[in-house]
Amino acid sequence: MTTTKDKRKKEETKDGEYLITYTRHLEKRLRNLETEKQLLDAERLRLEQELHSLRNEIDRLREPPLVSATIIDFLDEKGRAIVKSSTGPSFVVNSSRKVKNEKLAPGTRVALNQRTFAIMEVLPTKLDPFVKGMEVIDSIPDISYVDIGGLEDQMQEVRETVELPLKKPELFKKIGIEPPKGVLLFGPPGTGKTLLAKAVAHETEATFIRIIGSELVQKFIGEGARLVREILAKEKAPTILFIDELDAIGSQRLKIATSGDREVQRTLMQLLSELDGFEQRGDVKIIGATNRVDILDPALLRPGRFDRMIEFPIPDEVAREAIFKIHSRNLRIEENIEFKRLVNLTEGATGADIKAICTEAGMFAIRKDADMIINKDFIDAISKVMNKVKGQMVESRLYT
């Protein structure tokens, strides 16, 4: 009997342990299924959202195209307006409730429904991609005022003309004068006109637009004038416009001219009108640069258009020494470089010539596989570069 009872107890104990183990297994299995269910629910929600976005995209692609138009006149507060469509005719149309009447004004570009011609949305101002590409946004030059030597007076005048009215306009209001509208930089090639403009682009927070004068000369009549009008638009104020090689469109107007010359003159007249016309330009400052100030039209040089004319002369001894130190500060040179001697040997050299001399000195050191630039490398570079400069000066005298 005792043996039978012991066997039963052992069997009951085994059954109990088995039940406990099996129960734990089922609980674990249940937790795994709940986790799997949560993952499947999350996947289902993601697929539903993706399906919804795809259906919206299909509905958007099935929408009929809109017709672009320009508002000619706004009739009443109910949203009725006269528009001229891009296809040609004009219509009296209503506006959608989604479009606020405050945004509708003569000259505004809008999109019309293809069937009812109702105004569905307001379009941004049309801007020529050629003009858009002139904005210096991503490729802002990494040049500051510290990198310019020998032009302290010129830098002061440019900063007073261009930067100060944008950053501290209250100073001009307190004194009671209007800020200068533009500044003209003139002087021989290589004296730092474009370099100073690059520093202005780096230091200012305004939109900087760089354009070369010859880019405004277009093939068809009126295209150059339209580009000038769009470039000097006030939508992106504050703006600094830098016109390099201004003599390409600003030369004196002649009585006898070809059709091409007349188109250049139309562009010049549009520029004159924009510089000092009936409308105020607001915070749009202009910097012009030229090597030939003697051939510019007198109407372009009068006060009110370019209020300040800043001359960039050939650098003197003090300026040449400052330029040498600026261009050589990143070079690996020996300590006993005789800058005074280099300055005396480079009489008549411009800032661009001195930069070329420093580059040539580095090339001479590389040719010798040296670790640094020595005084002799600078002397050899000066003789090489200055011979070219003197040859150019002789050639230029032949044609004067």
How would you explain this protein's 3D organization?
The chain has 400 residues and is an alpha/beta fold. It has four domains: 1-63; 67-122, Nucleic acid-binding proteins (OB fold (Dihydrolipoamide Acetyltransferase, E2P)), CATH 2.40.50.140; 130-311, P-loop containing nucleotide triphosphate hydrolases (Rossmann fold, 3-Layer(aba) Sandwich), CATH 3.40.50.300; 317-398, Orthogonal Bundle (Helicase, Ruva Protein, domain 3). The chain is built from 13 helices and eleven strands. The chain has helices at residues 2-62, 129-132, 152-167, 169-175, 193-203, 223-231, 247-250, 259-275, 298-301, 317-328, 339-345, 351-367, 375-398, and strands at 67-74, 81-85, 90-93, 109-112, 119-122, 135-136, 182-186, 207-212, 239-244, 284-290, 308-311. It has a six-stranded mixed beta sheet with strand order 6-8-9-10-7-11, covered by helices on one side. A five-stranded antiparallel beta sheet has the order 3-2-1-4-5, with no helix packed on it. A hairpin with a 6-residue loop joins strand 4 (109-112) and strand 5 (119-122). Helix 10 crosses helix 11 (339-345). The longest helix is centred in the N-terminal third of the chain and has 61 residues, at 2-62. It starts with a helix and ends with a helix.
Strand order of the largest sheet: 6-8-9-10-7-11
Strand content: 5-15%
The first-to-last residue Cα distance is: 139 Å
Would you tell me the overall average pLDDT? 78
| Structural class computed from helices and strand pairing | alpha/beta
What is the number of independent domains?
Answer: 4
CATH topology type of the largest domain: Rossmann fold
What is the rounded Rg? 37 Å
Architecture of the largest domain, CATH level 2? Answer: 3-Layer(aba) Sandwich
Low-confidence stretches: 394-400
- The H-level CATH homologous superfamily of the largest domain, spelled out, is P-loop containing nucleotide triphosphate hydrolases
Global geometry = flat
Reported for the largest beta sheet, the result is: 6 strands, mixed
The CATH class of the largest domain: Alpha Beta
Order of helices and strands: HEEEEEHEHHEHEHEHHEHEHHHH
Question: Helical amount among residues, as a percent range?
Answer: 40-55%
Number of helices: 13
Question: How many DSSP E strands?
Answer: 11
